[in-house]
Design a protein that fits this description.
Blueprint: H1 2-7, H2 15-38, H3 43-71, H4 78-100, H5 107-136, H6 142-167, H7 175-183, H8 185-196
Length: 213
């Protein structure tokens, strides 16, 4: 995805997305190293996975905020978006801590897992709020639409994965494979957006949805 963005001259314009994908690639390399050294069920791999997952989720959250900035760039609302993003991130962290504070043992580990799950849900809601705003504003930039919809699909799959894991913990043999497979959706969709869709491409709003006048 990053190579496609660089080749199309879009690396700096979508810097937050590219930085997130580079960070994700580096984290995955470290995860594979720890995985093959200590094993899948090792404590080392478990701590690395969930702590790095929280950091990557925060990075993806700011990538989502950068898409907000692209959609509302003509309104010059970047300062309000940054302030709102920080407040929302802080509120999610406080809520997650309040949920796990009753558990006196391994409270930090539980906080990391809870915060990741809550941020996935917040990201899911914010992505669809952004999509609704794009429909309302009659957004026509095809690449931007592709980036937002791909992120919405990614958040939807991961949020559903967490929910189903909590509802059906007995299916423990499925969950280790579902999340990595679904994680391939986002880089593939974003790579397609940069490689196949030009920055000047436009799509008629009527082809996206029927919005009442």
């Amino acid at each position: 995805m990053v190579v496609c963005a660089i080749s199309r001259g879009s690396f700096r314009r979508y810097l937050a997305l590219n930085v997130y994908m580079l960070a994700s690639s580096c984290v995955n390399i470290v995860r594979f190293k720890v995985l093959f050294t200590y094993g899948f069920r090792s404590t080392e791999y478990g701590y690395l996975y969930y702590y790095s997952d929280l950091l990557l989720t925060i990075g993806l959250f700011f990538a989502l905020m950068s898409l907000y900035a692209h959609v509302f760039e003509e309104m010059r609302a970047e300062r309000f978006l940054r302030t709102g993003a920080l407040l929302l991130l802080l509120g999610t962290a406080i809520f997650s801590f309040a949920v796990v504070q009753q558990a006196s043992d391994r409270i930090l580990s539980r906080f990391v897992v809870e915060a990741s799950q809550n941020l996935y849900f917040v990201g899911l809601v914010l992505t669809y709020v952004l999509w609704g705003a794009m429909l309302k504003l009659r957004e026509t930039r095809t690449r931007l639409i592709q980036l937002v919809l791909a992120l919405g699909l990614y958040f939807s799959v991961l949020a559903a994965s967490y929910a189903l894991r909590n509802l059906y913990p007995s299916l423990h043999n499925i969950w280790p494979y579902l999340t990595p497979i679904s994680a391939c959706l986002l880089p593939l969709a974003w790579a397609y957006a940069f490689w196949r869709i030009s920055e000047d491409a436009r799509i008629a709003p009527s082809r996206l949805a029927v919005v009442p006048r």
